[in-house]
Amino acid sequence: MSPDVPLLNDYKQDFFLKRLPQTILGGPRLKLGYCAPPYIYVNQIILFLMPWVLGGIGTVLYQLGILEDYYTAALSGGLMLVAALVIQFTSIKAKTKSVTVERILTRDILAEEDEHEFTSCASAETVRFLIPGKKYIANTVFHSVLAGLVCGLGTWYLLPSRITWLYGCTGGTVTLFIFGWITLCIGEYSLIVNTPTETAAFQTQDTYEITPLMRPLYIFFFVSVDLAHRLIKNTPALQHMNQILHILFIFLPFLWAFGTLPPPDALFLWAMEQVLEFGLGGSSMSTHLRLLVMFIISTGTAVTSYFIPSTVGKQAKLLRAGIVRRILLTLVSPFAMIAFLSLDNSLQRLHSVSVSIGFTRAFRMVTCILQVWQNTENALLETAIVSALHLLISSKDLWWNRNLNTGMRLLLVGIIRDRLIQFISKLQFAITVLLASWKEKKQHRTTTTTLCILNVIFFPFVLVIIVFSTLLSSPLLPLFTLPVFLVGFPRPTRSWPGAVGTAACVCEDTIYYDQMVPRLTAALQTAMAGGCLGLLLPGSHYLGRFQDRLIWIMILERGYTYCCINIKGLELQETSCHTAEARTVDEIFEGAFEQEYSKVCSLNEHFGNVLTPCTILPVKLYSDARNVLSGIIDSHENLKSFKGDLIKVLVFILLQYCSKRPSKQNFHKTESKGETSLIVLPPSSCPRSPEDTHSFNSQTFNDWSDDIFDDEPTVQKGKNRLNDLPGTTIHLPGSVDSQKIDNLSTGTISENSLYKAVMLGYPAIDKGKQGSMAYISLTEFSSLHSHLVSLPEEWRSSCVPNSRMKEMSSLFPEEWYQFVLSQLECFHSEMASAALEEISKDKVLKDFYVHTVMTCYFGLLGIDNMVPTPGHILRVYGGVLPWSSALDWLTIKPELFQLALKAFRYTLKLMVDKASLGPTEDFEALNSCLEEYESDWYIGLVSDEKWKEAVLQEKPCLFSLGYDPNMGVYTGRVLTLQEELIQVGKLNTEAVRGQWANLSWELLYATNDDEERYSIQAHPLLLRNLTVQAAEPPLGYPIYSSEPLPVCQC
């Protein structure tokens, strides 16, 4: 990676510098991309200061003793409500007006987003620019009412006398009053005038206009504490909190601008998760609906436990476990903890909120509630710590024994345990980012040295940021993944708002992950039960590696003996960044699982990497092998052998197909020797033979005209002959409509009308000028059983000149034909042996096969019977055949076309196998090989739908032919279904959350979607590129994402 890779492109820098002041001030656009009239700025300043003016009226009246404080709040709130309604309805009226104005030209393309046309200070366009308005009428009213409440309560909150009473300092009162009103004005402007783009972006689209509620929501929180203090007097703790929050209130604009405070939807989900996990002993849930339902049920349980008597039941159905670890965790430990908790004297006074919540959490973690036991490992550790402290701290005067009961001790220890784990992970992540910026040459920038020095000098402040992020359980955000750390806003464990598994960048390679996931889930079940993946916590991330595949596994939910996971598949077409990080992953796993160390104590070469190897999982999946076919497909001897093998494979395919056809109703059967079995040759719809005409199909000719005999293919994309087959009828000059003759369907042709069919090779004759028509005589089988393997009637015609057909009939392998007949399943019984002998002597049947096989042969290789070139083989393998009369004959018979194409592909695979494994010794070996192709192989194109079906059906083997234009070589791809080993490692959870938080900020706020941006480049320690790929679309681009998958650990 070049050190000159920009953090933001030049055109995005200007855009970002315009957006940032707007975010800080709550919506006023004081920095535009063009020169706007002065009244635009004056109007915005007036609207910004309007709440302060209206609140100031009430404040002056209160300070003069004219109004009480609550009347002051009501007056200011009422004035703000009226003003808000006037502003909103003015915006609605402006939207209905249209004016003619002069356009202002701008130089920057991105400025088009800000470009507006103004004629006066009160014009419709000016109003639309200043006040965009709301999308919904309900929000127009609701936000206006909310603005009145914010202004009224804010006036009450910032009364000078109240601030002076809290602090007793005039200077502090002035400072808090001025900057406090600036905070209120910012909140009001974003609510009713113009909502800015927030740095704390959680949703990609604000469908229901939730973002305007963000800033007023936090203002209400601060005011609510003051109201509680007014109502509940003589409470020192509440007074101290009120004093602290008044000071923190003036810093709210900076917390909003830095994205530290979450938007309402993220705050709601995060708060429910934290209460459910620590207050009620639950787990993070895999979906928002499950989270809400579990929160309601758990809260109901806590409330119910407030009224239960002082007895404790022990109730659970024991499940068998195969290993000692599972027995200890699922059976012994829970009951041991229940026994410990049952002995606590706090149970005798259950009627207190703290004991109720604490014991609900404890019993929720160890007893059977809602048929699950939660977090047994964590509960065991916390119970052991509380028990040890109980033994060590004997003094009853210490606050630990005096003020806390066992339930609250468990709650406190649980929170400390969780936050301590987060702090260690965040500290490791921060150190990794800092050290990587210094020692990795590819990560060096001109500012690297300065940033590293500043981090060392101000390390205590960096530590405070990490601690603050840990307390909030929010991600530590490295800006542009540089050692510049910010506190991200708290968000749910899943990090993304959408449902899991509903979006992915689907491509051809998605199908391989689709096949693998069920078997991988089963392997993960065994690994989790054995503890191979370590402590399973919601939000944990794991990375799996096999050949060119990278699997991202996330724990969504954790309960008693089960967890819910999401599996993502990353792209297989590796970019340079992807390849660099994948190589690092391979080295880490190789060092852990394959490399042998001679020394007893060896240093970890990958110390500081976010990936820690865990285990190897045996999974049955497709192994992908790609080979270069140089020396095989371009060998003259192999190509000559290919011609003879093609005829044999055609015979095999057609005989197999005809013997297994389910319906024979189109064949005439006889029941006595006196009746004759007549086989009618239907009229052919082929054009005249090449000996009589030179008509051709232009599209096919274009694919073949430039280099028919060249070794290098020039197949054009989108010109696959197979796409035109279903339901297609080709009409060429001189041809006969295959569907109707003299307005009669071929299926109902009478015997007399058979002689009216036009014989192929003769020019078309205008209606009314028809002379005597040539006809094809009727033919009969010599065996009564030939219909068992006879060809469909529509296949028995021929469009190849008789002279050419007789000449090439000598190539037909009669012995092979007889051998394949004898191997058909329908003739394996003793009673069928006589029928087989009769059929093998039926010359008419054999002639039909000769004509059909050789016509298909001409259609595939051309009527000149020349040795095919590698380019020819590649094109025909892909379904693009050279034009000939035989091709048009095949085209109107889609089923036969597919069989001929399958035979061609089988022949190619046979040629490759013979070149690599040796020639087939006899007919028995050749037949076995072809039968194996039929049963265990799919041979075709990767882009075929049948290829995907074969993968999902778990066909044992798949083969495809390709061409690499960069290297100029022909390639073969073989997929083999077998048990392989997937290497799995655990990722630093906080490193993933931090990089995803930066990705969300960078794309949703800074709109930095440059594919070559710095924050997406390869990083061997952070695995930055892979982490970005694994994010939820549209920010990330995994090619596969599963729905939440339950995994039982029993």
Automatic annotation (TrEMBL):
Name under which the protein is recorded: Pecanex-like protein
Name of the coding gene: Pcnx4
Transmembrane segments annotated in the record for this chain: 39-64, 70-89, 136-159, 165-186, 247-271, 291-311, 323-343, 420-438, 450-472
A Pfam short name: Pecanex_C
Organism ancestry: Eukaryota, Metazoa, Chordata, Craniata, Vertebrata
Family to which this protein belongs: Belongs to the pecanex family.
Superkingdom of the organism of origin: Eukaryota
Membrane topology, from the record: Multi-pass membrane protein
Keyword annotations of the record: Membrane, Transmembrane, Transmembrane helix
This protein's record includes keyword Transmembrane: yes
